[in-house]
């Protein structure tokens, strides 16, 4: 099943509204149709099963159910890094932790 990450405010009273890029991906890339089911993760630990109602420029869906999902990977990783020259350490830390530049 396809999984999408959405902002929590895009879920309201059992309805999900996908943004423009997600809607395009649903309709043109994946070629999903109304009635198909996808997973929507809101970033706060919930994973929603969503049945698509409309697909196109503004895709919407109905929440069929949700489950609490793990936010951390069960895989333990150890990163070993030598001290780099110059100011490269900051970008190495960002890349290894998934933190975007503010």
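Q: What amino acid sequence fits the structure above?
A:
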């Amino acid at each position: 099943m396809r999984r999408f990450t959405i902002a929590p405010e895009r879920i309201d009273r059992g309805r999900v509204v996908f943004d423009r890029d997600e809607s395009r991906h649903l309709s043109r890339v994946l070629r999903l149709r109304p009635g198909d089911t996808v997973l929507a993760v809101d970033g706060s630990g919930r994973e929603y099963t969503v049945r698509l109602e409309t697909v196109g420029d503004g895709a919407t869906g109905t929440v069929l159910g949700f489950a609490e999902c793990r936010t951390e990977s069960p895989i333990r990783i150890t990163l070993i890094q030598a001290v780099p020259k110059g100011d490269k350490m900051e970008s190495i830390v960002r890349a290894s932790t998934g933190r975007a530049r503010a």
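Q: And what stands out in the fold?
A: The two ends are 33 Å apart (CA to CA).
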